């Protein structure tokens, strides 16, 4: 059993050697790792727990960056209208945004891949019907679908994730369908299907792994898209309440102070959002480049 | 061709019916509009009178058929908040969104095609790489955040342009538009540029991809061998050959520009349809939500239908495949 494990590691090493070629993508990867680590260890890194209303002091409200508040430490990024330390709020906001983005991405991947596989496996009328619905959904902008669903389902974390999944699973379905229907006609799948193995097993053990590379690329980009979409919904006032702020709600919260020159309340959370989203996209671009089978080596 | 036409039109009608059911059920499943409309302290009799007036005591199926029947007669109901027919409410906001979307498309075209041509013409140059990096930004950074940066830079710090609103409008061809006056332009330019960014990124990528493909083709080589100037080669042969796919994709994007206007209009406080739908979602103004959604779906179905039919006309293989 050791041989396939070794080749798997070997493939991973090859992948990394190719990935490393682009310094911008490596820098982006470092940014992502740093952002994820800061989000995970937010309670240790942040000087203040932004959810603890008792720790907030209104005397500290809207302090510009670099001032020392009543807590006795420097607010490097300033404070918001409730006296929250913005650096702490951004770390906790990153946490919320990343969790939502990854949850939505993962659920959309599972749902979309399943739908796409079913369509590719059955073919005929079922395939035509499923793909027609998927195409139709893709022709509607994701923001609109998410907006409608949040409006219908109401506010809250599960509703938000459900809306994001419903708005994005179609991308996974189309990608899986494309890759899987090409694999479906190959001999090894026909051979596996002619054995007494259940079709479900053939689909998930044989077909799916071979259709995986394009899915990985779509998954990276979709996590970034989920984060951006969630931020947009929160900005429009349809996301999470401010007691549990994501980056989008922090930006939205600071927007009203922007016009009076207190830029930091919305600009710093926005920079965090932009860094995260762009870094994920850059890594996704490089992964696409490396996994592209037509790439000349 | 007739069979193909009938098939596609039937499909579009079925999609519209399905969407109307989904929108109707979805919107009617949330909250009781009566609670929003009247004071909680008012009497039970008043409550029931209102429920009866809006037909909310009938069964869901009955309500749906009444709603469909009214809609086919051009009556989409009355807003709970504004007490105006929804159609005239949406229509009054329509010119603002339309001029915003068209200005954005114009900005995207005037900047995107030259930049994309250049990036495809000199793909290894420093400037081409900068253009492509810019297109990634336009693609991935959320629109609302760029809008905030624009406001901060041009309205708060530099003070050159107003931070939001629509400014004075003048009547052009029966529509109230801002683009008639210079002051109106100062209001529209920031939101339009903001809305254009996403399309700009898309258009740069499309044009570049087409240009790199065409540049290596035989007819470009022959045109050069003929001694034509580089300007003529690019302007005549390259531009013509990449224009068809660009025009198609861009036609499709008009619908999504109208939809994306939701975000830009909220950031810049632009009084268009998008602002209207966000406001009506927050106050649960159901008739406005339903009407807006159905109109948008209708718009998309029509655009897709037209594209399908035009493609079918241009490419007989699509017709044959669909008919079998």
From TrEMBL, chain A:
Q: Which UniProt keywords apply?
A: Cell membrane, Membrane, Transmembrane, Transmembrane helix, Transport
Q: Where does the sequence pass through the membrane?
A: 24-46, 98-122, 142-167, 263-284
Localization of this protein: Cell membrane
* Chief localisation class: membrane
The residue ranges of the ABC transmembrane type-1 domain are: 94-284
Check the record and name the InterPro entries matching this protein.
BP-dependent_transpt_permease, MetI-like, MetI-like_sf, OppC_N
Q: How does it sit in the membrane?
A: Multi-pass membrane protein
* PROSITE patterns membership: ABC_TM1
Q: Which family does it belong to?
A: Belongs to the binding-protein-dependent transport system permease family.
Q: What is this protein called?
A: ABC transporter permease
State the organism named in the record.
Microvirga terricola
Automatic annotation (TrEMBL), chain B:
* Chief location: membrane
Q: State its location(s).
A: Cell membrane
**InterPro entries the record matches:** BPD_transp_1_N, MetI-like, MetI-like_sf
Which CDD domains is this protein grouped with?
A: TM_PBP2
The record describes its membrane topology as:
Multi-pass membrane protein
Residues of the signal sequence?
none
Q: Write out the entry's keywords from A to Z.
A: Cell membrane, Membrane, Transmembrane, Transmembrane helix, Transport
- According to the entry, every stretch annotated as the ABC transmembrane type-1 domain falls at 94-311
Q: Which residues cross the membrane?
A: 12-31, 100-119, 131-156, 185-206, 242-263, 289-311
**Family that this chain belongs to:** Belongs to the binding-protein-dependent transport system permease family.
The UniProt entry, under PANTHER family, shows:
ABC TRANSPORTER PERMEASE PROTEIN, DIPEPTIDE TRANSPORT SYSTEM PERMEASE PROTEIN DPPB-RELATED
Q: What is this protein called?
A: ABC transporter permease
